[in-house]
Amino acid sequence: MRLLIMGPPGAGKGTQASQIARRLEIPAISTGEILRANVQERTALGEQAARYLDAGELVPDDLINAMVRSRLAEPDTRKGFLLDGFPRTVAQVDTLDKILADQGVALDKVLVLHVDQDELIQRLLGRAKQEGRSDDTEEVIRRRLEVYREQTEPLLEIYGQRGLRVDIDGMGDVSEVTDRVVAALES
Ligand code: AP5
C-alpha cells in the first residue's frame, strides 16, 4: 500500500503512522523526523532547515522535494510506504505525482486526521514538557497551525477530488483512533 497521512500539527500523524506501518510492514517516512535528524547531525541540509523548523515555517520545496525523491528511491519502499508530513504544498503534490509516475505506481489512500484546535495545542504543549521539541512553544505551535491552514489544508481538496481522501476522527485515545484508521484502510 502507498499511503499518505495528513492533518494539523498534533493530530497524531506520527503516532498513528508508526502503528499502521508496523501492521502493514511498510516503512513510515516522516519528513519532520528526517529533518530533525539532519539538524541533530549538523548535515548541510540540517544547517539550512533548522531556522525554518524553529520558526514553524515550511522548509523550502526544493530541499524537501530532493529529500523525499531520494528516500522514495530506497528499496524498502518498493512494497509500499506511509508518508507522514509530505506533501504540504501544491508544488510538493506535483513532485510526488512525478515520482510515483516515474515508478509506475499510484497512491492508494490519503488518511486525514481531524482534531479540535484546543486539543492540538494541549497535546503539543504536553509534548514540549516531556520531550522539549524546539517547535513546541505556544507561539510556534500557533504559527504551525496557521501555516497548515494556509498552505496544506488546500491539498485536502485536491485529494478529495481524486477520490483518495478518507477523513478520520482523531479525537480520543490513541488505540481508538488506530481502530478508526484500520477500519478506513479496510473500507
Ligand atoms: P512535523 O514533524 O511533520 O510536525 P507537525 O506536522 O507539526 O506534526 P507533529 O509531529 O507535531 O504532530 P503529529 O500530527 O505527527 O502528532 P504526533 O503523533 O507527533 O514537521 C515539523 C516541521 O518540519 C514543520 O513545521 C516544517 O518546518 C518541517 N517540515 C516537515 N515536513 C515538511 C514538508 N513536507 N515541507 C516543508 N517543511 C516540512 O502527536 C503529537 C503529541 O500528541 C504527542 O505527544 C503524542 O504522544 C500525542 N498524541 C497523539 N495522539 C494522541 C491521542 N489520540 N490522544 C492524546 N495524545 C495524543
TrEMBL record:
Residues 30-59 are annotated as: NMP. Pfam families: ADK. Monomer. The keyword Protein transport does not apply. It comes from the Bacteria. It is an enzyme of class 2 (transferase). The keyword Transferase applies. Keywords: ATP-binding, Cytoplasm, Kinase, Nucleotide biosynthesis, Nucleotide-binding, Transferase. The gene is adk. Its EC number is 2.7.4.3. Transmembrane segments: none annotated. Pathway: Purine metabolism; AMP biosynthesis via salvage pathway; AMP from ADP: step 1/1. It catalyses: AMP + ATP = 2 ADP. ATP binds at G10, A11, G12, K13, G14, T15, R127, G172. Catalyzes the reversible transfer of the terminal phosphate group between ATP and AMP. Plays an important role in cellular energy homeostasis and in adenine nucleotide metabolism. It is found in: Cytoplasm. This is Adenylate kinase. One of its GO terms (biological process) is AMP salvage. It comes from Thermasporomyces composti. The lineage of its organism: Bacteria, Bacillati, Actinomycetota, Actinomycetes, Propionibacteriales. One of its GO terms (molecular function) is AMP kinase activity. InterPro entries: Adenylat/UMP-CMP_kin (IPR000850), Adenylat_kinase_CS (IPR033690), P-loop_NTPase (IPR027417). Belongs to the adenylate kinase family.
